[in-house]
Amino acid sequence: MSLWEYANPVKFLRLSERVQPWLWWGSGICLVVGLIWGFFFTPDDFRQGSTVKIIYLHVPSALMAINAWFMMLVASLIWIVRRHHVSALAARAAAPVGIVMTLIALFTGAIWGQPMWGTWWAWDPRLTSFLILFLFYLGYVALWEAIEDPDTAADLTSILCLVGTVFAVLSRYAVLFWNQGLHQGASLSLDKEENVADVFYFPLLVCIAGFVLLFLALVLYRTGTEIRVRRTRALMARETRGAGLRAEEA
Amino acid sequence: MRALFFRDLALALRAGGGFGLGLAFFLIVVVLVPFSVGPQSALLTQIAPGVLWLGALLACLLSLDRLLAVDWEDGALDLLATSPLPLEGIVAVKAAAHWVTTGLPLVLAAPVLGVLLNLAPSGYGVLVLSLALGTPALSMIGAFGAALTVGIKRGGLLLSLLVLPLYVPTLIFGAEAARRAAEGLDSGTPLLLLAGITLAVLAAMPFAAGAVLRVNLR
Amino acid sequence: MELTVTDLAVGRGGVPVLAGVGFTLRAGQALVLRGPNGSGKTTLLRTVAGLQLPMAGTVAGADDRIAYAAHADGLKAALTVAENLRFWASVFGQSDIAPALAAFDLEELVDRPAGRLSAGQKRRLGLARLMVTGRDVWVLDEPTVSLDAASVALFAEAVRGHLARGGAALMATHIDLGIEAETLDVSGFRAAAAEMDAADEAFL
To answer: How far is C33 from chain B (nearest CA, A)?
Structure first.
């Protein structure tokens, strides 16, 4: 019994359908608890006032925007190396979720930035990097949509994902070089000194857990849809070929 | 390989598309800028390095969608794939020919267009140098994009969407070097970073482009 | 020299078209593929030429030996006949284009741009390209399209010469070239409906 058994679409579907309800409920509970806790039961920041509470949406979505790309990278590598169709379809399924996460991060950032910096948008390195990430997502999805043959599309988007990752990292450093920026330091870091205060920290963790579970649930759900689309295609192809042969025999 | 390079050059020269169009586009973009931002020379001086870099980048993008598509449509790419040349080499050579017919003229024309935008005198040398260092990367990255979209009808727009984000690091370092020089600052660091990116792209990108082309030919 | 195809299955867009194809092509031998339109001749030829991967089976002895010619000749309209040929010759590491020009009666057209040739002349130039590759195995997909009777005779003569020099030819064609050749009817190898792409099979 190995993990690779779930590379079989049918087994994957069966497992994913068993897991999904837990993920949906888990993410729902975490998000409700985390957001209510964060919005109503934490003190206002001494400098930023109540605007700071947008971190409960901003930070988790930004985190997931990057992790979704990372997941696509891993799935693409698995597709290139082991050629499991489920992997390619999961990468495809994750991209739109990643786009939405990136958009949430950008919009909540703008809403937060307005009272804090007095502007909706600044060409700050972090904001700029997210905008570039958004462009990479758009290109990736557009390429998937443009190619008819599913295996060709999977190959090409996988390579684009690899190349895109390298260039996204390069862009990140290029942008840092280009403008030092006004964004505050990371809200979360392993270095305890730099972390936000504990009162904000724990509800933030709950919200992040909620976003992670939501992301997993959405990706599994969408992967299931992609698998069913492929399955319909396979069935239809078999049907037409079967009909052709029967006509010949008759 | 050399034969392919010279064939592409000859084709670009005779069809008239290569040298002429890219340069004309570059000129038009630069001429339109003062119309959109106003004729104040101080403002133009300030934005000149960035506008010249952006114009060169867009002009480079212009001819990319024909880079491989022509050979794809008339079957030459199939025949080349069955020849002794490796696909990686084919893409690299075609990118090199693209650079000579599109990138190099842009590099040479940039100082002339710099005059139109009132570029600071200290900026000319580094502007040309940064374009000379950066445009080969633009051609090679573009060849990767062209290989990705070669089988797609009307892939031109998609090509731009895929390639432009990949141009970001080159544009940032190139324009930054030109800007710093124009302001009389030291531009050594961005130039070195730009050269590093170009070298890495030239070394690694042919393999990615070759792999993509192999998938598309299949 | 020998080209051996064993138990080959080929497909288009992930759908198997032919399965269990096998033949051997020896020096001096020509093999003609027959079968109705859409029966998979082109797919088979492309697979043998290495342009697409087989779904199953092997093609042995094809590496760097095959000169492929299909419907599209890969000619550049802006280059002259001689320049087109010389380009392909140097791609394949050859230099002499005179025999190819002579064999396909192109000597008077050498300086004419390929864009101003008639369809039949273009086709002749496309076939002349085979002779400058120096490869042993010619893989030809409908080589006689748009050729008149005289040109077909030129082509048949060129193939005969190639075979006499120890080459081999694998071609899909409907007309009789008057060459001594074995025929292989591909319609006997049609992939059965049950033989789905292994990948698609996993989705059922």
So the answer is: 21
Q: What percent of chain A has pLDDT over 90?
A: 40
The interface predicted TM-score of the complex, written ipTM, equals 0.88
Pairing of strands C182-185, C168-172: unpaired
Pick B168's closest partner by Cβ from A143, A156, A174.
A174
8 A C-beta contact, residue A91 and residue A158: yes
Rg (chain B; Cα; Å): 18
B197 contacts in chain A (CB < 8 Å)? 170
Residues near A156 by beta carbon (within 8 Å), at least 6 away in sequence: A143, A147, B148, B212, B215, B216
Can you tell me the distance from the alpha carbon of B30 to that of B48, in angstroms, rounded to the nearest whole number?
A: 9
How would residue B71 be classed by pLDDT, with cut points 50, 70 and 90?
Answer: confident
**How is chain B split into domains, by residue range?**
2-217
Nearest residue in B to C89, CA atom: B3
DSSP 3-state of A134: helix
Domain ranges of chain C: 27-52+61-184
Residues of B with CB under 8 A from a CB of A: 144, 148-149, 151-152, 155, 158, 161-162, 164-166, 168-169, 172-173, 176, 190, 193, 197, 205, 208, 211-212, 215-216, 218
C77-109 CB burial, b ≥16 within 10 A, e <16: ebbbbbbbbbbbbbbbebeebeebbebbebeeb
Distance CA B49, CA A221 (A): 49
The CATH architecture to which C27-52+61-184 belongs is 3-Layer(aba) Sandwich (3.40)
- Measured CA to CA, the distance from residue C117 to residue B171 in angstroms comes to 45
The structure tokens listed for B172 are 């940032």
Contacts of A9 in chain C (CB under 8 A): 202-203
Given a cut of 80, whether residue A195 has pLDDT beyond it is no
Q: How many Cβ atoms from other residues are within 10 Å of residue C6's Cβ?
A: 15
